UniProtKB/TrEMBL annotation:
Topology in the lipid bilayer: Peripheral membrane protein
Start and end residues of each ABC transporter domain: 5-255
Gene Ontology MF, one: ATP binding
SUPFAM superfamilies, per the entry: P-loop containing nucleoside triphosphate hydrolases
Keyword match tRNA processing: no
Cleavable signal peptide: none
Coiled-coil positions: none
Protein name: ABC transporter ATP-binding protein
UniProt cross-references to PANTHER family, sorted A to Z: DIPEPTIDE TRANSPORT ATP-BINDING PROTEIN DPPD, OLIGOPEPTIDE TRANSPORT ATP-BINDING PROTEIN APPD
Tagged with keyword ATP-binding: yes
Pfam families: ABC_tran (PF00005), oligo_HPY (PF08352)
Length: 324
């Protein structure tokens, strides 16, 4: 399949007075049309910064210092601001974790959605309004004609997130980057939104990068998974392969910490310790100080990627279940 998005060796650093913080350090992945990629990992692993870097939304002192981001063959790293403005919102849309980062509390939903249409398309205002109404209907908001006149505070958290998704869909973009958009929602609303996202991705053939720390959400939504730790992708592959037969001990640890995977009465097995500070990473493999499979060689060098079919991992001691 032809990649809609291709990220190659992306590096995003934040300058400090002591040493640069390597928030994203050599990340590579691709997403094809109609495909959903789950980008998962603990808080601070670099997931969100990867999404912001793709769209050129990293503010100083952060900057992309290396790598390539190809969107439909067009290089986005270093592209002029005018080029990025034409692409953002129209061809690439982003859904943020907090819908109030997308919605202006003092403007009606109609005003915000219509302006989003007119920012990219020279179309009559009545037609822009009709597109906004239809987009609200697509994401399951009842009585969309009446709700256009409402304000963000008149919607529940789940409905506000649906509005944010509707805004992302206004131009039927080729790629959507969703930054943990269901984290703050209850399980029932989360399930409804995941169903709608999957349906819409299939209907419009959009590529989707779904950023999350919740492997349970990714399991029900994604086609492929990329697991991040300390600014790098440590394992990637098909969702069933990764979740059923993880190769990297970090992926195994994330799965063992899920309540859904434990038998009744069995204690969960959390990953010991904390992720290292970006300015104090251990030598060699960044995960070795928390890893049950670590050996002396893990401190000597950073493991290089190992590929087996569509699977890839960075580990000197991959788990036997993956090889089986």
């Amino acid at each position: 399949m032809v990649a809609v998005l291709q990220v190659e060796g992306l590096q995003t650093w934040f300058g400090t007075k002591d040493a640069p913080v390597r928030a994203v350090d050599g990340v590579s992945f691709s997403v094809a049309r109609g495909e959903i990629l789950g980008l998962v990992g603990e808080s601070g692993s670099g997931k969100s910064i990867t999404g912001f870097s793709i769209l050129g939304l990293v503010d100083p002192p952060g900057r992309v210092v290396g790598g390539r981001v190809l969107f439909q063959g067009q290089e986005l790293v270093g592209a002029p601001p005018e080029t990025l403005r034409r692409i953002r919102g129209k061809k690439i849309a982003m859904i943020f974790q907090d819908p109030m980062m997308t919605l202006n509390p003092v403007l009606s939903i109609e005003t915000q959605m219509v302006e989003a249409v007119l920012a990219h398309d020279d179309t009559p205002r009545a037609e822009a309004r009709a597109r906004a109404r239809d987009a609200l209907g697509l994401v399951g908001i009842p009585s969309p004609e009446e709700r256009l006149g409402a304000y963000p505070h008149q919607f529940s958290g789940g409905m506000r997130q649906r509005v944010a998704i509707a805004i992302a869909l206004l131009h039927k973009p080729d790629l959507i980057i969703a930054d943990e958009p269901t984290t703050a929602l209850d399980v029932t609303i989360q399930s409804q939104i995941l169903f709608e996202v999957r349906r819409l991705a299939d209907a419009f053939g959009m590529a989707l990068v779904w950023i999350s720390h919740d492997l349970g959400v990714v399991a029900s939504l994604a086609d492929r998974v990329a697991v991040m730790y300390a600014g790098r992708i440590v394992e990637s592959g098909g969702v069933d392969d990764i979740l059923d037969r993880p190769a990297h001990p970090y992926t195994r640890g994330l799965l063992d910490a899920l309540p859904a995977t434990a038998r009744r009465g069995e204690r969960l097995r959390p990953i010991p310790g904390m992720a290292p500070a970006p300015t104090a990473r251990p030598s060699g493999c960044a995960f070795r100080t928390r890893c049950f499979a670590a050996g002396p060689d893990c401190a000597a060098a950073e493991p290089e990627p190992t590929r087996a079919g569509e699977r890839q991992w960075r580990c000197f001691h991959p788990l036997a279940e993956a090889a089986a």
